[in-house]
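User: Fold this, then the next.

Assistant: Folding the first:
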Amino acid sequence: MMADRSAMVLFSGGQDSTVCLAWALDRYAHVETVGFAYGQRHGVELAQRPVVRAEIAARFPQWAPRLGDDHLLDLAALGQISDTALTREAQFEMTAAGLPNTFVPGRNLLFFTYAAALAYRRGIRILVGGMCETDFSGYPDCRNETLQSLAKSIALGMDAAFTIATPLMWIDKAATWEMAVRLGGPALVDLIIAHTHTCYTPDRSIRHAWGYGCGQCPACGLRARGWERWQIART
């Protein structure tokens, strides 16, 4: 396996990481996925991960041979040291630091470091994540500067040419929906609506036009507004 022809996608089972998985499958000969269990209150996303992978393999036969192994890593300690609305039952609100209380300090830094350690052993040097500066909640570990600095540190620390690719970094949620249809047509859009989970709660009892979720949390708000803007742009 050539390192520049394989990728490891940080795959949560949500909309953004599913679009990133499709993006990687469209470009690389071999794509593996990695997810993290860190005590998130919306742990249902972990149950959706294999469902989404199976649906991608079934609906897109051109991608199925490229879809490699999935890995689920236990980062329970992250949830234990965090005091956030993603790791405990709490109302979603802004903190005194000016960040939403859904911010889990160090989460993406740890995710990419663990993913790189796994990828190193498997001969993979391209790491793909769905972070975005355009339509995000202000998380400092989603910024391009943060992630490219981290990529340099990982490459230096492992003495290997690691790259962090973030195909959604400079686009909003409406453009993410457009990327999905460009990559996989209506079938990928339907898959995202039916099977991904982006909501910060485990609620999958209500199906909206854009997918399942509580419809009230910040993640649902972003997804719904992006869907609405995308629908308007397509008319």
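Now the next one, as you asked:
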Amino acid sequence: MKKISQVLKWLSSLKIATLLLLVIAVSCAAGTLIPQQESNQFYYENFNKNPFLGIINAKILLLFEFDHVYTSFWFLFLLIWLGLALSVCSFRRQLPILKSALNWIDYKSPRQIVKLSVAQTIVTNNYSKSLEKIKLNLKKQGWNVKETDGRLAARQGVIGRLGPILIHIGMILLMIGATYGSLNGKTIEKFLAPGRSIDLLNNNKEKGLTIELQKFQIERDPQGRAEQYRSIVNVIEPNGNNQSKEISVNYPLRYKGITLYQADWSLAAITIQIDNSPRLQIPIEPIPELGEQVWGTIIPTNKDGKNPILLTVDSELGPVNIYDNDGTLLTNLNTNKEEKVKESLIKIINIIPSSGLLLKHDPGVPIVYLSFAIILIGGSLSIISTKKIWVLHEKEKSMIYIGGLSNRNLSGLSKELPNLISFLEN
């Protein structure tokens, strides 16, 4: 039993809990700085040449599961350890403190009163009448009073002792909710052009919701820089019910446990016409070699596939740059403009942007929100000071002794006692 007690004491140590919080915070920072849930090849390409912090290469990173920090075995172990430490602390410390605050302590000796942090002595000729006045005044000011054989015990703010326990419960629920969401949640990132859709599967692997992009718009400042992205999406249920919603950056859509964010933008295709051909919608892909936000495609100008040209664009507004196969810039065309390139008449009809949508399903969110509410309530209750006052009389000396304790704001209690004395003098 002694060893078990020592282990429990060590687990509930404030130093251990603080150290765990520090390690968890550092781990979360690493999970933010290191891209998560990427392929192994991604980490070999990016971290072998430039190790994280100069020492963590791809092999170490993958070995210790830094590619998925929040679901790694060691991070979950830290959360379980912290939850256990908080639980032990609540049972070993906070619950006994609450129980002690709820118990009435009966001081029978003036010496016990005098030794309290705040104490006053009153001379009275009628102690029974004075005690009655004190009792009525305490009750009037919201104190809970208990009288025993001419002695008074009063307390106020006992509910404040419940605050730390609620904070511990909230933190444990927060870790449970975050862990449950990490292990069972799903994230889908998809670029959609207007008219395209995503089919989501339910738990039975059957078709559930369908997210269809109806319209996408990029708002730009006078210098042409993107300021805001807006998407109008149709949420289609299996029974055919259809709801149209607008989302934008910082204004996501929440629908039946799924959160849809406006995350990014891209360019999907260029619609062109070559000579008298029908309108051709040609997909374009990012070309990082030419710039951070450059998209393009290669198309032939002859029927036999020869004499190809490269079309590049960096904005849905254009222009479209046209290069020869040796990299020479031939021309640039705005939308609804045409020009002869290599004996072919090329017309740019439009440039089709695509919306970067991020879908998240996190079943742990309700638990996390509940934990936040409990932590806020617990934090508010913790502000309340718990105060206790004892009053007894000594017949031989015609004296009344008043003393009190407070877990915080002791100066406030020391200012309340003179008001009681002043009340008796009136």
